[in-house]
Amino acid sequence: MHARILWSAPITLALALMAAPAVPQDAPDAQTAALLKPPSIPGQNINGMKVYIRAGLKTHFRGQHDYPQFLADWSKILTEHGAVVDGSMHAPTAAELDGVDVLVIYKGDAGYMTPAEKAALDAFVKRGGGIVSIHDALCGPDPEQFATYVGGAKKHGEINFTLDAPVSYKIVDPNHPIMRGMSEITLFDEAFYKLTWSKEAKVNVLATSVIADTPVARQAGYAGQTVPQIWTYERNAAGGKPARAFVWMQGHLYENTLNYQIETMLLRAIAWAGHRPVEELAEYKDAAPGPGVHEQSAPSRAPRRN
Questions:
Q1: What is the pTM of this model?
Q2: Total structural domains within the chain
Q3: At the N or C end, where does the chain have fewer CB atoms within 10 A?
Q4: Helix, strand, coil: what percent of the chain each, to 5?
Q5: 269 lies in which domain range?
Q6: Residue pair 118/141 in contact by the 8 Å Cβ criterion
């Protein structure tokens, strides 16, 4: 009598798998790859330059130093203009800066850094990462050190500001692409005047302002003096790639960050700092609405007055 072998389903499947050619676990098939691919979202440019916004907790009075509102508004503005945006209200870690083209800082006293925060910023700048500094981001305990990142800085605690006062711009480099078409507007804001400049490289001043004759500025001896308020800065960190920074020292009143000319200037500055074509963000064309999306529902914002 011959023995009969009964093949169970699990045994049959196991033998079939043993005979099949090995497939690397990290090589999903076409169907799985399609499921893993993020969906295309109308209004977003997933291939755009990567921007990280460092904001902070709200300080000062109503309408002033509204860092959280900047994070909320400008994450939308930059997305509408073709950027990929992330951000937080803390100093970004090295992991958070991985792949980022430009770090935008609108947060008071960003010059205060822990050793780990400084190391992350140093590594970011060394690989050519750009920085856009707004208002009092360039303030801290060691202005000489922070000036190496953005060209100029101010020391926390020193009397070096006009408080609420007119800031009238004199554009001294109208041919710079960041300033293209910008008029010499006057903002009601705050100007800084006692600055420490970088010893590693010179700044390229784009606009200056005559310091208003306020009691504080008069006491410090700076009333009537002409001081840079907008500039660019380029340097090569030791053993690194060329890095760019842009500084706009106003923004004491949050609404000025949404001034039409200032918004355009900042969009150009972010692209410039990221070594991109300067109009990449400012002249970005919105993606066409997806199927079933009406034109009026696409992101839009009414033009603002100067």
A1: 0.81
A2: 1
A3: N
A4: 30, 20, 50
A5: 50-157+197-208+228-273
A6: no
